[in-house]
Amino acid sequence: MSKAEIVRIAKIKCPRCGSEFSVNISTNVLEEAKINPLGLAGVAVPHSDHVLVVYFDRNGDERGIRVFSILQAPERGIFEVNIPEGDVKGLRNIAGFIIESRKLNLRLKYSTRMTSTAIKVSASDTTLEVDFQRDIGYHHVKAWLELLVDVFENSYSTLPADYINTIRVFDVIVEESPFTYAKQIFWLVANASTITIRPRLPESLLVRKYRPTILYEKYNGNFVSRAVDSVGLRVSEVLGTEMPQILYSYAETLLSLYRRGVIDLVIE
Predict the structure, then answer these.
(1) According to the model, what pLDDT value does residue 226 have?
(2) How far apart are CA 233 and CA 44, in angstroms?
(3) So which domain of life are we looking at (predicted)?
(4) What pTM did the predictor assign?
């Protein structure tokens, strides 16, 4: 079976404007859902001044709809945001970056330091260019950037902070060899403002009461407690704007709690 084969066609109505669309669910969508930390894949339908995103699970069943405003209407060009240095604190490897999302008509730019190496990768609707302070190795970095651009290609947050924090987390692990789990961390951070934390009962109550050693020794205990008490908070609110190493650790903690059934991570 070809990866691009259409499994079925879903009829979707945009809740904002009432327009109706036929959305193709391909095997690519099902594969993306399988590797997504929430078991979902989004299909974007840009129209007018907004984007309809329909989420499907690994079986091709619809699991929710979100509507995002496009920052600037397509006919007026891409909306460009220059990121101030204060918003990109703690970088030790990255000197600058450009993230361009054509589906959101958004370009984020940051550059203030001397550049040793610049590498650019592209996907259908996304271009990512990163400048490094030193030579890390072209093939090594390119493999990382291809993973990262794929995450941005399948992300739908319209908040620059989500993408900036993803780059900051990337800066922490770029010296390591690429690993599959990193993609889940990137995706969670890149969509942090669109995902709500919902503690599960009785699992979260048991964690509060017994404070299992495996969680409280491996991860920051105070953050574990905060996460299981985060009723209805967005992931972005819980992660905050900590230093990149701490952001990385916090994102790992949330995914661990989710895998253990302590919290649900819900796209809303």
Answers:
(1) 93
(2) 25
(3) Archaea
(4) 0.85
Beta strand 117-122 with 126-132 is antiparallel
Q: For residue 74, what pLDDT band results from cuts at 50, 70 and 90? A: low
CA distance 10 to 4: 16
Residues 224, 215: contact at Cβ < 8 Å?
A: yes
Q: State the alpha helices, DSSP H only, in the chain.
A: 27-35, 138-153, 160-173, 180-190, 203-210, 213-218, 221-228, 235-239, 244-259
Alpha helices in 62-137 (DSSP H): none
The string of pLDDT tens digits covering residues 115-171 is: 678 899 999 999 999 999 888 888 999 999 999 999 999 898 888 999 999 999 999
**Domain ranges, ordered by start, for the chain:** 6-69, 75-178, 193-267
Alpha carbon distance 31, 21 (integer Å): 22
CA distance 257 to 264: 8
Task: Let me know: does 189 contact 169? Beta carbons within 8 Å.
Answer: yes
Q: Which residues contact residue 197 at a Cβ distance below 8 angstroms, ignoring those fewer than 6 apart? A: 227, 230, 231, 232, 233, 234, 235, 238, 254, 263, 264, 265, 266
